[in-house]
What does this fold into?
Amino acid sequence: MKACEVMEKLFSLANDKRFTKTCDTKKAGDENKEVKKVAVTMFATIPVIKKAKEWGADLLVVHEPTYYNHMDEHSDEKIESLKRKYIEDSGLVIYRYHDYPHSAKPDMIAEGMLKYMNFEGEIERTGVFDLVRIHLKEAMTPREIAKQIEINCGIAHLRICGAADVKCDEISGMFGTPGGVFEELKNDKCQVLLTGEACEWALGEYARDAADLGFKKALIIMGHIGSERDGMKYVTDLINSKIDGIEAKYFEGGEVYTYTDR
It folds into this structure.
């Protein structure tokens, strides 16, 4: 099966319609290359490219940009140029898979995060980009919620803004860096909001002030990779179960941060 045919099947698994404008395009390689093995990851980091090639991958499917801007527009900047050469030498075909999994009903990335976070409760799938709500069976503090996510999702450190030790039973998930995070945080029903990245001086200080004023309000920052990578593991499982003749494997790229205790 050609790389473009594999991607067409992936697009179809997410959405019957095709976007007229999307970032989900080929980033490198020959779209007509025959594919037997598909590597899946969050970012096309240098180590991931190397490991995928050693495994024998023909196609690398990534969730986020390869060249540091949303549409992967090229420039002559030194690091970008060296990375493009490294990718060309690898022979890998690289496609992005971002808009389609987020447009699926339900959102594929959110489904993967819900699966691996493994909270007990009723799931509300809102239909809004990347927004899910978890109505917990038993109340937990944001500190307890963060610890469970760290353990189940393998995230090194989560950060909590606001009421860390107040029992809550409502969690909102807005993974990655979607729009509308502040609006959800301000929602009276929102007690704990999970997201990947956030502006500290706006969202962080809002959550802290809300907590100091007596509200059940906390913002938990998971890091961009930590907040979406289990969604791409979910995509890997879909490829293996839905696309015949193709073997898929998830490749961990690690968090972007280095910590003093690791």
DSSP finds nine helices and eleven strands in the chain. The longest helix spans residues 229-242.
